[in-house]
């Protein structure tokens, strides 16, 4: 069982989607802690109600990014995470922090990278008039939003879309691909080779996958 730490800054719907997946059946990982850089993050309340350990470290209390990141790492380490999941986490992390969790930290970004790194991706996609938009799960590296890509999902941009319509269409596919990527990581199937992600085949023959086993009497 892999130990998962989630970092978020707000609503936490990606955390909720992951929680729903880890809570059922044979998921090979468990969320051991949820942390935020703001005390008012709604995702922290959700985690508390689910009985998960939480912490808030207000980045405003740390004048230097390095100090905040050191405190973040010191707070996370007692939970011995195998994987750090950024789920709507809004602070850029320093190279020291990123290197410490190299190969074991994932982010979901609301665009089809390498298009639209950074913030305000839906506004920028609409302004460019792209017909296809989406989201990307990638390993986090010091190069912001440029780490090795694990999985992407695309959605159409439809006539009449505003930021809210587009953001919610993207969010629905975020909730599907992020738990999938985390599952692959926890199954030990993701590897990094020259900056590219490889997915090893499942150890289970398809016919023996638990969800395909028909119970007696069904
Ligand atoms: N850190 C590193 N080193 N590398 C990445 O790829 C990271 C990262 C930290 C967060 C998420 C990312 C996204 O998916 C992420 C990826 C925040 C900003 C940002 O500009 C940019 C990208 C992402 C997250 N943050 C401002 C800052 O000064 C603060 C903005 C705010 O508080 O609203 O840190 O989009
Ligand atoms: C998601 O759309 C996520 O991709 C995006 O913020 C939203 C968080 O929603 N992430 C970023 O923009 C990172 N800079 P959630 O809190 O409901 O998961």
Keywords for this structure?
single chain, Rossmann fold, binds ligand NHR, 218 residues, two-stranded antiparallel ribbon, binds glycinamide ribonucleotide, 6 helices, alpha/beta
Give every kind of bound small molecule, once each.
ligand NHR, glycinamide ribonucleotide
Instruction: Pick out the low-confidence regions.
Output: none
Give the CATH class: Alpha Beta
- Summed up, the domain count is 1
List the total number of helices. 6
**Overall morphology:** globular
Coarse structural class: alpha/beta
Question: Architecture, according to CATH?
Answer: 3-Layer(aba) Sandwich
Order of the strands making up the biggest sheet: 3-2-1-4-5-6-7
CATH topology, by name, is Rossmann fold
Largest sheet: 7 strands, mixed
Average pLDDT: 95
The rounded distance between the terminal residues' Cα atoms is 30 Å
Task: Please tell me about this protein's structure.
The two termini are 30 Å apart. Helix 1 packs parallel to helix 6 (163-186). The model has no long low-confidence stretch (mean pLDDT 95). The strands form two sheets. A seven-stranded mixed beta sheet has the order 3-2-1-4-5-6-7, covered by helices on one side. The protein has a two-stranded antiparallel sheet with strand order 8-9. The chain has one domain (2-191): 3-Layer(aba) Sandwich (Rossmann fold), CATH 3.40.50. The chain has 218 residues and is an alpha/beta fold. The protein is 31% helix and 24% strand. The relative contact order is 0.15. It has helices at 13-22, 42-49, 65-76, 95-100, 121-128, 163-186; strands at residues 2-8, 29-36, 53-56, 83-86, 105-109, 132-139, 149-156, 190-193, 196-199. Residues 8, 10-14, 87-88, 90, 108-110, 135, 171, 174 line the site of glycinamide ribonucleotide.
């Amino acid at each position: 069982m892999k130990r998962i730490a989630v970092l978020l800054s707000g609503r936490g719907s990606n955390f909720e989607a992951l929680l729903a997946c880890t809570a059922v059946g044979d998921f090979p990982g468990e969320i051991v802690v949820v942390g935020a850089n703001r005390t008012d993050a709604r995702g922290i309340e959700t985690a508390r109600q689910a009985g998960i350990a939480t912490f808030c470290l207000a980045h405003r209390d740390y004048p230097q990014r390095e100090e905040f990141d050191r405190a973040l790492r010191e707070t996370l380490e007692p939970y011995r995470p195998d994987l750090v999941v950024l789920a709507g986490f809004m602070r850029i992390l320093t190279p020291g922090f990123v290197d410490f969790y190299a190969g074991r930290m994932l982010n979901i970004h609301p665009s089809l990278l390498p298009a639209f790194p950074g913030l305000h991706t839906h506004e920028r996609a609409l302004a460019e008039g792209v017909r296809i938009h989406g989201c990307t799960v990638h390993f986090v590296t010091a190069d912001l939003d440029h780490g090795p890509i694990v999985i992407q999902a695309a959605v159409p941009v439809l006539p009449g879309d505003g930021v809210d319509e587009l953001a919610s269409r993207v969010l629905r596919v975020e909730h599907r691909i992020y738990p999938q990527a985390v599952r692959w990581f926890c199954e030990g199937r993701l590897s990094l080779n020259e900056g590219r992600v490889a997915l090893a085949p499942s150890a289970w023959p398809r016919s023996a996958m638990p969800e395909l086993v028909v119970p007696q009497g069904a």
